[in-house]
Amino acid sequence: xxxxxxxxxxxxxxxxxxxxxxxxxxxxxxxxxxxxxxxxxxxxxxxxxxxxxxxxxxxxxxxxxxxxxxxxxxxxxxxxxxxxxxxxxxxxxxxxxxxxxxxxxxxxxxxxxxxxxxxxxxxxxxxxxxxxxxxxxxxxxxxxxxxxxxxxxxxxxxxxxxxxxxxxxxxxxxxxxxxxxxxxxxxxxxxxxxxxxxxxxxxxxxxxxxxxxxxxxxxxxxxxxxxxxxxxxxxxxxxxxxxxxxxxxxxxxxxxxxxxxxxxxxxxxxxxxxxxxxxxxxxxxxxxxxxxxxxxxxxxxxxxxxxxxxxxxxxxxxxxxxxxxxxxxxxxxxxxxxxxxxxxxxxxxxxxxxxxxxxxxxxxxxxxxxxxxxxxxxxxxxxxxxxxxxxxxxxxxxxxxxxxxxxxxxxxxxxxxxxxxxxx
Amino acid sequence: xxxxxxxxxxxxxxxxxxxxxxxxxxxxxxxxxxxxxxxxxxxxxxxxxxxxxxxxxxxxxxxxxxxxxxxxxxxxxxxxxxxxxxxxxxxxxxxxxxxxxxxxxxxxxxxxxxxxxxxxxxxxxxxxxxxxxxxxxxxxxxxxxxxxxxxxxxxxxxxxxxxxxxxxxxxxxxxxxxxxxxxxxxxxxxxxxxxxxxxxxxxxxxxxxxxxxxxxxxxxxxxxxxxxxxxxxxxxxxxxxxxxxxxxxxxxxxxxxxxxxxxxxxxxxxxxxxxxxxxxxxxxxxxxxxxxxxxxxxxxxxxxxxxxxxxxxxxxxxxxxxxxxxxxx
Lengths: 424, 329
Prior knowledge:
- By secondary structure, chain A is α+β, with helices and mostly antiparallel strands.
- Chain A has 3 domains: about 5-115, CATH 2.40.50.100; about 130-185, Dihydrolipoamide Transferase; about 205-424, Chloramphenicol acetyltransferase-like domain (Chloramphenicol Acetyltransferase, 2-Layer Sandwich), CATH 3.30.559.10.
- In chain A, about 30% of the residues lie in helices and about 25% in strands.
- Chain B is globular and about 60 Å long.
């Protein structure tokens, strides 16, 4: 039975793909999982693998050719099998009307995927603490309909309320108590491994109104900008000393690495800025995955440094270098440039003193880092010269309010101005 | 205002309507010479004569059908059943003729009549004579169903039922006939209570006890006891089950966020099931607890006094249900 080879969606945003190179030729024997071709997507060059076995009977798209996702681009079949019907379908760019074999293969793929997910999820589940009262084994919080509505109106996480009803059901009086006593904005975590990766914060009426009105005022993402001018004297000093230590290993860190580390640490303290806007709620992340803007020949890509807050500067430095290198070669995998919780863009190396960056939705914030340069500043009635750096934060006002952004920048400035703070 | 009994209130309603409208007549077993099995029709034979106050043989299906025919040709019969336990024999005339004639004649033949009599358990009348019959009639489109709990409601609602253009099932309570209550004086004008308007008999913000008919009094006793415990209950008397005052139910539930339905009948497919469905459909987001029901136990009514008491809804069971929806143990 023949297997149809379709242009697959190899990146989350891919609509069409270009065949860079066929790694198998017509007549080659194909095993399930063999790499058939290199496909350039909108983001990177990816491998297209076989989902069946037999002989590569027909290639329908030449190298350099482009096809929409789903289009039939080759056929794998038994030796001597009649594939003329299938080949004529190749004109159908949508690639619909798949054969049984094909469906079976796709199903198999899905099953494998879900098995993998299960395998990944299982240890997490084992680690999860025993369900608390009011929370069923499946993570669902038991609450009366009224309690749910009240909590949603007030923007209170049901999960954060202890239920006093039967079986720990959260009822009206529990929500009222929580409203009186106040509940923490978001759980502060120090051990992300043992907790969920994020917290979904339902939208209060006020938050919904802010979101609606601000979008009306300025584009789909209502930006506002906050700039700080940072004294980098101690950071310069710290970098010298760190690099002296790293010299033996042949490594060194850049100012950008220091900014990334400091940003990650500050985000950890301010989960309200480490968040996504998800239309009907805000998702606050307990882990910090920094997307770092990297300029490439024909555009820009943002590889992600995962758990940047828990990595040392040398580790961040090495990772950014490695990711940026492969980004320029368009060799990044989708998972390496997606899943960021916050972005950093640096144009300091071009001598840009300060600028504003455009938010990468659904993220809620991005830092635009300017050049580190000596500038005169007034201090204690005198003008002195010191190394300064301007950082401008773009905030999505639906998620981050002015004071929240400002507090985050205060923390960031604090770390950059006294890198020892990183040790505290 | 005058304080009179429930039976006197019904008698006033009948005589006032018979005086007002010559097409109104009363028919049933022992309604004339004997003044009615429960003395509701006392004095009516003397005032209106035997053409308008008519004794019948023991033949429920017959005189119910006779009434339907009279209504079809323009009279306004009031058919008395000695109790609704006996009216099962007349169900065919009520459900197939009275309830459907207006519909099946394309609106040409209205059936303006009242079937009235007591329903529910009295004391030790055993399984066959203790039915709360509401649910059988509430089930059928084409009928209206009225359940007055007090003398004033009995008078005002019976007058409205007699004047209504549709067949009305008017259910009284055997244990209510001696109940006394204030009723507006006849000299103060025509006292009519429109059908489909519930009455908040006791006001409180903590829990809604919703009920109809004789159990209104049980609910009021429970509310009084709860009051001592610091719990303030709404007691909402629906007064009629068709049409149903959904707005009043929702208003109370939205205020208290919890409800208990109390009724004389069985729980299975009872009136309460309909009310609970309405509440969860219309006020889901306002509920802080599941809606509970207090009903007769799901058994034929026992004859033995102790078992009968256990089978009937009680004040204690109402209080227990209220505590449960209030999450008080």
